[in-house]
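Replying to the earlier thread about multi-chain prediction with a worked example.

Input:
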Amino acid sequence: QSVLTQPPSASGTPGQRVTVSCSGSSSNIGSRTVNWYQQLPGTAPKLIIYSSNQRPSGVPDRFSGSKSGTSASLAISGLQSEDEADYYCAAWDDSLNGRVVFGGGTKLTVL
Amino acid sequence: QLQLQESGPGLVKPSETLSLTCTVSGGSISSSNNNWGWIRQPPGEGLEWIGSIYYSGSTYYNPSLKSRVTISVDTSKNQFSLKLSSVTAADTAVYYCARNPCITCGMDVWGQGTTVTVSS
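Result:
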């Protein structure tokens, strides 16, 4: 069972806006920033959002992140077929002497 | 541009020690403030952080694996390594190495991953 909670699946049609939620606690999301990763089938994860709402260079501005309290969200606007992937949230957790914790992942299907 | 490459045996016997190395190219492993980490992904499952090391040698480990994990750095070879002892079938996974610009930051550069199977 993952420390951060994500819905196992999400879906949308091309052009739509979809969001993926990530729920945590005061020892992680509540006091730390959130990072989001995209994992295309058979490839390594790719950082798409860091510090809760910042995009690395090269990541389209269709991807955005937000955080409120102990929850965070990833939004993808103008959904494209190539966005079909697994998405993971992650954060530093201050419990147990500190650790990186991940969500269980959300499989996004573009219908 | 910075690149990471994992290497090591693809098959390990139960109860033995899994050993992997991550070679960093296109930059120095000693460059400022970088942490270097290991993450794994069992077949069909999600990501699990194993641990991270600062170039100076300070380490952070996943509490659930801490008793079996050792991460070390060899600055002369621009490499860092993972050892996981007393492995079982549950340790079968794709193992990734990655860079964190800081321990609480996102992991912004990843290796391609290497599959390790634990089986006799």
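The interface with chain B takes residues 2, 32-33, 35-37, 43-47, 49-51, 56, 88, 90, 92, 96-105 of chain A (CB under 8 Å).

Feel free to reuse this layout for your own posts.
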